[in-house]
Amino acid sequence: GAVVSQHPSWVICKSGTSVKIECRSLDFQATTMFWYRQFPKQSLMLMATSNEGSKATYEQGVEKDKFLINHASLTLSTLTVTSAHPEDSSFYICSATREQYFGPGTRLTVT
Amino acid sequence: QQQVKQSPQSLIVQKGGISIINCAYENTAFDYFPWYQQFPGKGPALLIAIRPDVSEKKEGRFTISFNKSAKQFSLHIMDSQPGDSATYFCAASIRPNQFYFGTGTSLTVIP
Fold it and tell me: Of A85, A74, A93, nearest to A109 (Cα)?
């Protein structure tokens, strides 16, 4: 199956700072990538759909200005959590293709 | 509104037994039904998937049974092993940006 990587795998940051998470498709080109958020022992919540060369499509209730998504190339999408707060602490996972090949996830902890 | 309903929430099975997880959906427009396996701290991994034109798909010890008329599909894990202990998610999709996940089933296989 397709391989998707994420970086970093975990990050700790202080409140008010911004954090960037990278999602890369390693062996294929992805015009569309997806960003999910997952709380402990819960299902995945789609945050936004990232489209190469155009603006991301955000799900209802997701703050566009807080979760900035950039899909600058066919193999890279980034999610930037701006002015992070403790409630943003979560597991962020990206995926690509119709089959939803997932990255390994990024654990964000905001102190 | 939960588009895909998954049960049970948790499941304990003896080694060598059969694990069965069920999902139900309402939208007949769904045309892709995958199952994902997720280990703690990792992203979900595509396990097996089926399209509505077949009633069963088997890959090794994993089988999807699909009942189009009942709008239900299930995952069967034969000869369950302790290494199968993980959280399993079913999902249903119409197209890439309409992907709905079940709430997850925590499977524990007892040696």
Answer: A85
- Closest residue to A105, CB basis, from B43, B87, B104: B43
> Which residue in B43, B45, B97 is closest to A49 by CB distance?
B97
Q: What share of chain A is helix, strand, coil (3-state, %, to 5)?
A: 5, 55, 45
Structure tokens at A73: 């190339």
State pLDDT tens for residues B47-106: 999 999 999 999 999 999 999 999 999 999 999 999 999 999 999 998 756 788 999 999
Best of A43, A98, A101 to mutate (most B CBs within 10 Å, chain B): A43
Write out the two tokens for B108. Answer: 């524990």
What is the spatial distance between Cα A22 and Cα A29, in angstroms, rounded to a whole number?
Answer: 15
Contact A100 B91 (CB under 8 A): yes
